[in-house]
Amino acid sequence: MGKEYKVFCCTHIDTECFNDPLYTLLHTGADYDGKKYKNMLADNTGDNISNKKDKFDGLVTGLYWIWKNTNYEITGICSYRGYMSYDGKKPIGLNETKELFENKQIDFIAARAEVPMSIYATTKKYEAEIFARNMHNPFEYLREAVEYVDPAYLNAFDHVMYKGSILNCRHTFITRRKYFALYCEWIFNVMTKYDQILKEKHYQFSGYRFYGGIIEIMERVWIINNPINVLELPIIMITEQNVGYIN
Q: Nearest to residue 76, comparing CAs of 39, 38, 108, 116?
């Protein structure tokens, strides 16, 4: 029997995802939204953090649900509008994904974007209220959390945050189950410790989906600190009208 493949397209509205057997819809933040959609999985079953959408973002509550409640051999996550593309014309499909994992021995397919400055400088410029409100660099506390969970990640963290300009963005990736589980265990351990530190410091959270943005940055830290075969692809955005790139 061949490997089982499934990528979950996260949504908060009643919609459709790209028509390919690789994809299935997942209503994320279902508890928080208080809505039910027919013929769609929801992230408020089993072991879940569905009611924490306001803090973590729906893609993150979905990530947790996939980790705790599914066991596909090759699995991943994206939004119902944003997909990785192998040919630059349409979202990557089941046949292409099988070719990459089974014949080219890829371990992790990640969305890639570049910013003009370091991640730290970009965040400070465009999310200035995070720093101004608390008069403290929130990434210093994040570094403390990383060191507590596993100090082997500190070099990768420092590079990504203060030197790097590449982002593995939008919580969009496909990987082998082994690496999916390892990544989720690491990132949720880091975020649990980070949450504890911020509360102890009486840090004022910067509104809706604060942790979602932090986790998006941290994916690259995990990737460059693990010796796996990674393929990075651009994201294309699909609407009813057109397909467009996000670089």
A: 108
